[in-house]
User: Which sequence fits this backbone?
């Protein structure tokens, strides 16, 4: 099944069927999730209503890391197996990941002002996420700055693999160094330090963002596949 | 050896070397990467009183003091409190507005200068939030339980 989908053409057919389903699921879950996060969940004992920013901030932060991991896996398989679809996926993922990262930084900043008393501090967690954002920008720039796409993919893949060092740093920065940012609340699923009534909106929002990501990814992939076809046609014309 | 495997090994080896390099850099930069010192570290280390540093810990219960003081003809509120890491304590004096989340028994990070060991002059006070999220009713229940246990 998966090997079948690795063929870009079959993948495109699969995409056309699957994409509308994901976008509808994402919107449906978003409506429920927003209802829960604004009206059907309690305020925090300390932060009050500010806690509701978490329902957007935390899923965004998770996806900024997850999308980067996807890019790393695709980059390695692109460098090793030289598979086109892996290139197309990492190419499509980079701008989405950059958006999730900037959303994380902005919502975190808005939360930081009333909670900590500052918009921004240079602690290990905040700085490493900013570096992640800059790496995403680097990937987007490399992807678009070569006429020869295979060259662009190669250099972007190398940057992605090098930047993978940043992932564990982001994840464990709050444990390794004393940071202003609090440690993870959901490190073990068995005993999260978030009250269950607040976990419900958090997980609904996470699923909504997941389907949103998949749906945008599929749209972008379709575009990339078409772009490659156009490139091939152009190339053949020039050759003749 | 297949070309594919060769490429895979090249990537793995160069990645491992690179992350080892990063690891060594981070180990050596440890002191510069931490955002704040704990009170014990202030007592252990020689830190010049001219350098701006940050100290973090718990605000000791019932240690918050406010008094009105006249500075340059303006009445200002001078705030003092004690930061503890349950080993060493340090007195913080601060003139300004405390963040909303500043509470006794909660985490806090202050930025400023050391006056002497045990006294710190803060320019900025940041509240540190912990990883616990719960509705107010549950917090009330917990404090009732704690009180019951104390008795």
Assistant:
């Amino acid at each position: 099944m998966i090997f079948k989908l690795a063929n870009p053409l079959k993948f495109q057919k699969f995409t056309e069927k699957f994409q509308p389903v994901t976008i509808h699921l994402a919107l449906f879950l978003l409506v429920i999730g927003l209802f829960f996060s604004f009206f059907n969940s309690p305020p925090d004992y300390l932060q009050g209503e500010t806690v509701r920013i978490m329902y957007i901030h935390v899923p965004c932060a998770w996806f900024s890391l997850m999308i980067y991991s996807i890019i790393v896996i695709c980059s390695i398989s692109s460098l090793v197996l030289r598979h086109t679809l892996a290139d197309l996926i990492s190419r499509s993922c980079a701008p989405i990941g950059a958006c999730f990262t900037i959303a994380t930084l902005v919502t975190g900043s808005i939360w930081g002002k009333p909670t900590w008393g500052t918009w921004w501090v240079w602690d290990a967690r905040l700085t490493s996420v900013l570096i992640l954002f800059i790496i995403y920008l680097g990937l987007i720039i490399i992807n678009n700055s070569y006429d020869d796409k295979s060259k662009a993919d190669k250099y972007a893949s190398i940057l992605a693999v090098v930047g993978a060092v940043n992932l564990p740093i982001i994840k464990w920065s709050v444990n390794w160094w004393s940071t202003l940012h609090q440690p993870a609340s959901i490190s073990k699923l068995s005993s999260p330090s978030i009250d269950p009534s607040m976990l419900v909106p958090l997980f609904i929002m996470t699923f909504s963002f997941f389907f949103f990501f998949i749906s945008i990814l599929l749209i972008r992939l379709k575009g990339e596949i078409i772009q490659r076809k156009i490139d091939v046609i152009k190339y053949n014309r020039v050759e003749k | 050896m297949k070309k594919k495997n060769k490429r895979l090994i090249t990537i793995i080896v160069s990645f491992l070397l690179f992350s080892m390099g990063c690891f060594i850099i981070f180990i050596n930069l440890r002191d510069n990467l931490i955002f704040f010192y704990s009170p014990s570290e202030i007592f252990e280390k020689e830190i010049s009183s001219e350098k701006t540093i940050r100290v973090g810990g718990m605000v000791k219960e019932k240690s918050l003091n406010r008094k009105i003081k006249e500075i340059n003809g303006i009445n200002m509120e001078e705030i003092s409190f004690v930061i503890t890491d349950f080993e060493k304590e340090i007195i913080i004096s601060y003139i300004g507005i405390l963040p909303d989340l500043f509470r006794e028994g909660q985490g806090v990070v202050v930025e400023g200068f050391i006056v002497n060991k045990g006294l710190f002059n803060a320019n900025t006070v940041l509240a540190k939030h912990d990883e616990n999220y719960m509705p107010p009713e549950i917090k009330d229940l917990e404090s009732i339980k704690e009180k019951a246990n104390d008795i």
In short: Chain B has two domains: 1-33, 36-127. Chain B has a mean pLDDT of 81. Chain B touches chain A at residues 4, 7-8, 11, 15, 18-19, 22, 26, 30, 33-38, 56, 98-103, 106, 109, 124-139 (CB under 8 Å). The beta strands of chain B are 53-59, 65-71, 74-84, 89-95, 107-116, 119-127.
